[in-house]
Design brief:
The structure holds three protein chains of three kinds.
Chain A: H1 4-23, H2 27-52, H3 56-86
Helix pairs in contact in A: 1-2, 2-3
Chain B: H1 5-22, H2 28-52, E1 61-69, E2 74-80, H3 82-101, H4 118-138, H5 142-151, H6 153-162, H7 171-208, H8 213-222, H9 229-246, H10 255-262, H11 265-290, H12 292-318, H13 323-343, H14 347-378, H15 389-392, H16 394-407, H17 414-429, H18 431-456, H19 472-490, H20 493-509, H21 518-522
Helix pairs in contact in B: 1-2, 1-4, 2-3, 2-4, 3-4, 3-11, 3-14, 3-19, 3-20, 4-5, 4-6, 4-11, 5-7, 6-7, 7-9, 7-10, 9-11, 9-12, 10-11, 10-13, 11-12, 11-13, 11-14, 12-13, 12-18, 13-14, 13-17, 13-18, 14-16, 14-17, 14-19, 14-20, 16-18, 16-19, 17-18, 17-19
Chain C: H1 3-22, H2 30-53, E1 62-72, E2 75-83, H3 85-108, H4 115-134, H5 138-156, H6 163-194, H7 199-204, H8 211-228, H9 236-240, H10 246-255, H11 260-267, H12 269-273, H13 276-299, H14 303-323, H15 329-356, H16 374-388, H17 394-408, H18 411-440, H19 462-483, H20 487-496, H21 507-530, H22 543-549, H23 554-601, H24 607-630
Helix pairs in contact in C: 1-2, 1-4, 2-3, 2-4, 3-4, 3-10, 3-15, 3-19, 4-5, 5-6, 5-10, 6-8, 8-11, 8-13, 10-15, 11-14, 13-14, 13-18, 13-22, 14-15, 14-17, 14-18, 15-16, 15-17, 15-19, 15-20, 16-18, 16-19, 17-18, 17-19, 18-21
Chain lengths: ~100, ~525, ~625
């Protein structure tokens, strides 16, 4: 199978994720969409690795996973504390830092 | 290796600043005494420098040189010539008076267990300024100079913005708004100047390959370092702009009245008598030595600006309603004289300008500090709020008058000598400019005497009728300044002896000789 | 003997320092310390005078070098004193009249709580004035020049609680500064021309330079003299200066300081002799002022202001004489000395009258005082006779010579100047007779003041009358003493030089004409003020009278053009500084502030809009990269 098809899939996933980030208000969904984008990138890295025949892409994919895991931890914590104080998970409600 | 005297002179107040800042909140008085002691010790060191300095010796003496940032050829190089020695002595001399005069300026308004320590901060900042000013006078590395020239702004910013006159006419809130306006204005003006200078400093490095004033000046003098005419001019303008902001020269002057008006009197003295002198000093040391040809090229324009400063500053002083702003505009006029003297390119002009820096420091300190004592008694800076003070506080009025007479350059007091030298030095080369500048002496009489008349004479206003005369602490501040004014007025030789050889060197840097009197020239 | 010269100055300077720094504990004895030190200086002066008399005429110049004052490059100013016949004359006049006036002030200022300070200022004045006449170079002279200005400022404004006194003091200082500007430019010109401003080198090199330069120097010196000596156009301060205590008017604004301009011109005779145009300017200024002052003196009802007008006019005579060159120098100084006696005497007399009249100065409120104050009347009367040039008295000798010398100038100039001087003599006789008649003759016209205190005219205490008597002696005999055997001429000639002009009129004719003028003046004054009662309220008067009362509108001119104009100028400059110069700066700041205010709106606080801009940015970058690739 042509590896380029995987790249199309990756781009599709990335676009879905990005659209989700832009249009959804629920912080959890936005958060999951970000994960989707990250994974789309991972897929692209792995494909590139396969296409070029070296391991660089795979290694970067691992790095990305680690970063994503860390991000999940911090991000969920923020979302939970946000929900606790404001009783809402909408990202539009959190605009206190605006001048 | 000998004892690093110059470093010590600058480090002592720096260490003192840290120590003063560290004094516990409850020991305010201890902090004041510590600051006073440090300034006195610095004065002692400055006197040692003065004594060790040999006017007829090498150009730069007591030199220290250490590698610092090797990658850029930046060195920690110190050295003093006669001009620098005179100004270091002036700075060290004025500081104890500034500290003493500001003794109560930073007392917390209400006594309580406030966490922050305004008093400690005030005196620590003053000492920090002293350290930086002194090292600016000593630095012979352009980069080193630049760093402290700029760093000075930080403590000055806090001194202007953080401390003001007590019991201001419009209440504390308005006052603090005006203060922060003045402080920001001061900072922005000087930062802009400094940034342009930074560009020129980098440009100089690109052209010359190092930052050493002595090396570059020497290479310029013996022709081994050639600069394209335009390059030199641009670099000169970059340096000059920063110094002209600091000095300040018309039309870059408007920060000074705000800063001096809003700051407490001792800080105002610090600005005009000490910090601003770095600007005029640097014109002599850096502009003329590094860029002799460009300096000569720019001379006509600078002289005209200086002339405008003289007349304009004096006229504006006449129109002021605020005592401190009046003194500020008078200072602008005086800085015009100093810059005119420097760029007249005659021995009399430059020696006179250096002497002028010293004398102006002393005379403005006398006038401004007494004005500060006056203001602290009545709680207003407006001239119209006073009247008849002479009757209730004759000593205060008398010292105020002497300070005023020094400001108008009365013969017999120190500023006359320098002002006349500047005028003569300018006149020998540029008669028309010299004559117009002479109008300044009439205007100086006008603003000083109008100020004196409106505040000190006439019927006693009810608000000032209970005004106490000078206290002992205040007298200790004013009396030595008055004595110095008289002494240097009748016997300026100690200063001119130190300054003259350095000026001779500078004159030869720019390849200029004094014009001959026409009787001799005819022979 | 040279070493005594510095002591001449040191004594009063010490007095000033002690009295001003000493504080209240010296209040009880301060006036005697002041008088003692002034007299000490006089004694030194007499000793030096005796020493000079014992020497040949050529060796009568003593110099004393104290220290090098300023030394920068070729600019050398020394503190060196020079005592020659000219400065000796001044030293004796200053310390002599000065000591008498110190003595007088002990009585005059008796009830003033700040008497100690007054004596301190008087001593300061003496020191500065002595420095002025003893200096060996122009820069040191300048120190004395401004020093006397300072003392004059302090003394005019001595009663500073009166706004009018404070204003008058300020005005005097500032107008004088305009003159000082002339002196400093003259010194700068000397330095660029001769490379020096010490008397010796300058005078000896006068021949080596162009007349144009010398004329410029001369005109600048004249400007200086105009300021200090209240000559037109810088005369406006002198009338106001009468706000000061009367002894000050007598010492500073009649006998000594105001004559410094004449000293300056005579001292610079070498320069003026070589610059005829400058000399002409001097004579014109002198002639104009002598008429100006005389006319103003006729119209004033304030006794001190009338005398001030007279002082101006008499100094006009001296300046005129000094401008005539070698034919006039000696007579200028001679008139200066005799004037010092009689004018000081007149002022002291006026002070004595005021002392007895509750400080009333309006002559229309005097009248018939001769019965109440006989000594004052007699001494004042002798001074009066001296100033109008009554034959045999001091003024007769000195003024007559000046009028003669003016005619001797020759040509049309001679006739005009001589005519002016003659006319001046007539007006002098008129206004002085007016003063005399209004004050001492006629009906008594005094009235109670606002507080209802009726004045009780009485003679002044001895401490005041003795100086008046001494000065009256001087007024009577000094002229004759100087003139017989040409003593004064022989004494001064080595310094100033002298030549006899060829007058178109004989000496007798001039004297005769002067006498006729005198009689006309006295007669007119008698007709108007002696035979008719003097109205207690000034009549409206003719246009000229009204103008003269206002100093011939000079003050109005100054007020409108200089004061008002200056106020408008400074006010508009303050405005310009605030709006334009500062406005540019604040405008720049405001532009950036406004811009960032707009940009701030983009930060709307919605995380998703930030995300959009991020994606948009990323997309742009990608697109740009692709585009670059494609190209």
């Amino acid at each position: 199978m042509n590896p380029v098809n995987y790249l199309y899939l990756s781009a599709l996933l990335f676009t879905i994720g990005a659209t989700g980030v832009l249009i959804r208000r629920n912080a959890i969904v936005v958060f999951m969409c970000i994960e989707l984008m990250l994974n789309a990138c991972n897929l692209a890295f792995v494909v590139f690795s396969r296409m070029h025949g070296n391991l660089d892409g795979q290694i970067i994919a691992f790095f990305t996973m680690v970063v994503a895991a860390a991000e999940v931890v911090v991000g969920l914590a923020i979302i939970v504390s946000l929900f606790r104080t404001r009783h809402s998970a909408s990202v539009d409600d959190a605009s206190l830092m605006k001048l | 290796m000998s004892f690093p005297l110059l470093t010590a002179t600058a480090v002592l107040p720096a260490v003192g600043a840290v120590a003063t800042a560290a004094v516990p909140a409850s020991r305010r008085t201890a902090a004041k005494w510590l600051a006073l002691l440090v300034t006195l010790a610095t004065l002692a060191l400055a006197i040692v420098v003065l004594v060790r300095f040999d006017p007829d010796g090498a150009r730069y003496q007591l030199t220290e040189s250490h590698a610092w940032i090797k990658a850029f050829g930046v060195r920690y190089e110190l050295g003093v010539d006669g001009i620098a020695v005179a100004l270091i002595a002036l700075t060290a001399l004025l500081m104890p008076f500034i500290v003493l005069a500001g003794w109560h300026d930073a007392d917390p308004l209400e006594t309580g267990s406030r966490r922050w320590r305004p008093t400690q901060g005030f005196f620590a900042l003053i000492l920090a300024v002293e350290a930086m000013v002194i090292i600016s006078f000593e630095a012979t590395d352009v980069f080193l100079f630049y760093i402290f020239f700029e760093a000075m702004l930080i403590p000055m910013y806090f001194l202007i913005g953080g401390f003001g006159d007590r019991a201001h006419e419009h209440g504390e809130e308005v006052a603090s708004t005006q203060r922060s306006y003045a402080a920001v204005k001061f900072l922005l003006y000087n930062l802009v100047g400094g940034l342009i200078m930074l560009a020129a400093v980098i440009g100089l490095y690109v052209v010359a390959g190092n930052f050493s004033l002595q090396e570059i000046a020497q290479a310029r003098a013996n022709g081994s370092l050639d600069m394209a005419t335009n390059t030199e001019r641009w670099l000169f303008l970059g340096f000059f702009f920063a110094f002209a902001v600091k000095a300040p020269l018309w039309p870059l002057h408007t920060w000074l009245p705000n800063a001096m008006g809003e700051a407490t009197a001792p800080v105002a003295v610090l600005i005009t008598a000490v910090v601003d002198k770095v600007g005029t000093f640097a014109m002599l040391r850096f502009c003329l030595q590094l860029f002799p040809e460009a300096s000569k090229w720019a001379t006509p324009a600078i002289l005209v600006l200086a002339l405008i400063s003289i007349v304009y500053g004096a006229l504006l002083a006449v129109g002021q309603r605020d005592i401190k702003r009046l003194v500020a505009y008078a200072s602008i006029s005086h800085f015009g004289f100093i810059i005119m003297g420097i760029f007249a390119m005659t021995t009399q002009g430059q020696s006179g300008a250096t002497l002028y820096m010293v004398n102006h420091g002393i005379s403005t300190a006398a006038l401004m500090l007494v004005a500060g004592f006056l203001i602290s008694r009545r709680g207003s800076r407006l001239i119209a709020d006073y009247g008849g003070v002479q009757k209730v506080a004759p000593v205060l009025a008398g010292t105020f008058l002497i300070g005023g007479l020094a400001t108008l350059s009365l013969p017999g007091l120190a500023p006359f000598v320098s002002e006349f030298l500047v005028l003569v030095g300018t006149f020998t080369r540029y008669p028309a400019i010299g004559i117009i500048a002479t109008f300044g002496i009439v205007l100086a009489a006008l603003y000083t005497l109008v100020l004196y008349q409106r505040t000190m004479t006439g019927p006693v206003k009810p608000e000032v009728s209970a005004m106490p005369d000078l206290r002992v602490r205040e007298l200790v501040v004013v009396a030595p300044l008055v004595i110095l004014l008289i002494f240097l007025g009748v016997y300026p030789k100690p200063v001119t002896d130190i300054v003259n050889p350095a000026v001779k060197q500078t004159m030869s840097d720019v390849h200029k000789t004094d014009p001959k009197p026409s009787v001799e020239a005819a022979k | 003997m040279e070493n005594l010269i510095a002591l001449l100055i040191a004594a009063p300077l010490l007095g000033a320092a002690v009295l001003l720094v000493g504080g209240r504990r010296l209040d009880a004895v301060g006036h005697w310390i002041g008088t003692l030190l002034s007299t000490t200086s006089f004694v030194f002066g007499v000793i030096l005078f005796a020493d000079l008399l014992g020497k040949d005429a050529e060796h009568r110049t003593l110099t004393q070098h104290l220290w090098t004052w300023i030394s920068v490059g070729s600019f050398q100013a020394d503190v060196t004193f020079r005592l020659d016949q000219l400065s000796m004359t001044f030293v004796l006049l200053i310390t002599g009249v000065g000591s008498l006036i110190h003595l007088y002030s002990v009585g005059y200022m008796e009830h003033d709580e700040r008497r100690r300070r007054f004596f301190g200022y008087l001593n300061l004045f003496l020191a500065a004035m002595l420095l002025l006449v003893l200096a060996d170079n122009y820069l040191l002279l300048y120190v004395g020049w401004e020093g006397v200005g300072l003392a004059s400022y302090l003394l005019i404004g001595f009663w500073q609680h009166k706004p009018s006194a404070a204003t008058a003091a300020k005005k005097a200082f500032i107008v004088n500064r305009v003159g000082d500007m002339g002196l400093s430019i003259a010194i700068m010109l000397m330095f660029t021309t001769f490379g020096s401003f010490a008397f010796g080198p300058v005078f000896s090199h006068v021949g080596d330079t162009s007349e144009g330069k010398l004329t410029a120097i001369g005109l600048m010196l004249l400007l200086a003299a105009c300021g200090k000596s209240a000559q037109v156009p810088l005369q406006s301060w002198l009338g106001d200066a009468m706000e000061g205590p009367t002894p000050v008017s007598a010492l500073i604004h009649a006998a000594t300081m105001v004559t410094a301009g004449v000293y300056l011109i005579v001292r610079s005779s070498a320069i003026f002799n070589a610059a005829p145009d400058a000399q002409l300017a001097v004579t014109v200024v002198g002639a104009v002022t002598l008429l100006f002052g005389a006319i103003v003196g006729c119209a004033k009802d304030d006794i001190k202001k009338a005398l001030a007008g007279s002082t101006m006019s008499q100094i006009g005579y001296m300046v005129l004489a000094a401008g005539l060159g070698p034919i006039g120098y000696v007579f200028a100084i001679m008139h200066l000395v005799t004037h010092g006696f009689f004018k000081a005497g007149l002022f002291l007399g006026a002070g004595s009258v005021m002392h007895g009249m509750n400080d009333e100065v309006d002559m229309r409120r005097y009248g018939g005082l001769r019965k109440y104050m006989p000594i004052t009347f007699i001494t004042f009367g002798l001074g009066y006779l001296a100033i109008i040039g009554f034959p045999g008295l001091s003024g007769f000798f000195s003024k007559d010579k000046i009028i003669e010398a003016a005619f001797a100038k020759g040509g049309t100039e001679g006739w005009i100047l001589g005519g002016a001087a003659l006319l001046g003599a007539a007006i002098t006789a008129f206004y002085m007779t007016r003063v005399m008649l209004m004050t001492f003759f006629g009906e008594k016209r005094w009235q109670p003041d606002e507080n209802g205190n009726e004045p009780h005219p009485h003679e002044s205490p001895k401490v005041m009358t003795i100086p008046m008597v001494v000065l009256a002696f001087g007024s009577v005999f000094a002229g004759g003493l100087f003139s017989f055997g040409d003593r004064f001429l022989d004494w001064l000639e080595p310094v100033t030089g002298h030549s006899e002009g060829d007058s178109p009129l004989s000496a007798g004719t001039v004297t005769g004409a002067t006498m006729v003028c005198l009689l006309i003046g006295v007669g007119l004054a008698y007709a108007q003020y002696g035979r008719k009662p003097v109205p207690a309220v000034a009549p409206r008067g003719s246009l000229l009278t009204r103008a003269a009362r206002r100093d011939l509108l000079q003050d109005d001119f100054n007020h409108v053009v200089l004061v008002r104009g200056g106020e408008h100028l400074t006010r508009s400059l303050v405005y310009v500084d605030h709006t334009l110069v500062d406005g540019v700066v604040n405008g720049t700041a405001a532009t950036f502030g406004g811009l960032s205010g707009r940009l701030r709106k983009l930060q709307n606080g919605f995380a998703r809009s930030y995300a959009v801009s991020m994606f948009g940015g990323a997309a742009l970058l990608v697109a740009a990269t692709l585009l670059m690739r494609a190209v």
